[in-house]
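A quick aside before the break. I want you to see a complete sequence-to-structure record at least once, exactly as it would be stored in a machine-readable document. Don't worry about memorizing anything.
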Amino acid sequence: MIKMPSRVELCPLVLSDQDEFCALVRASVELHQPWMQLPTTAEEFRVWMRRFDDGANLGFLVRVRETGAAAGMVNINSIIRGRYQGASLGYAAFAPSAGQGYMTEGLAATLQYAFTDLRLHRLEANIQPANKASLALVRRLGFHYEGVSPAYLYIDGGWRDHERWAVTAASPWIPDPSLPPR
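That is the input. The structure line, written in tokens, reads:
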């Protein structure tokens, strides 16, 4: 099989992305509700960006290579080293380019980066059971269903159940130096 180059690239999310990000989130409210709430104002964006200060969370924009337009965002959240070597994922498409496969490519690039560059072993995606688009996305990328976490995250004014989906690095895997030898 010939591997085609990706139509997207991952770009670290930075403070100067504020106006573009917030405008795209506002344009995508119907797409994101009730699954997630992202910053829609400059102040919310600055507060939200603090989560990336300590390196335990990483944020990216999924940009279309041809145009530079942001098609969505991906976060690698709660990176844990030691014996776990894993993290959770958060992601959202932006309405202007939703449904064109950019998030599939963007999340695939995120997996590659997480397993190769960050040397993580496991990634989880926690998804509300009615979010059919997100469930289809993780299935396409080889995630496996692990169960339901009742009242897992507080979203849209209430504690929401989530399905837990996970994927692990392919063999051979080069572990991060923080993995204990035994």
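Two observations worth writing down. The CA atoms of residues 104 and 136 lie 10 Å apart. The first strand starts at residue 8 and ends at 12. We'll return to this after the break.
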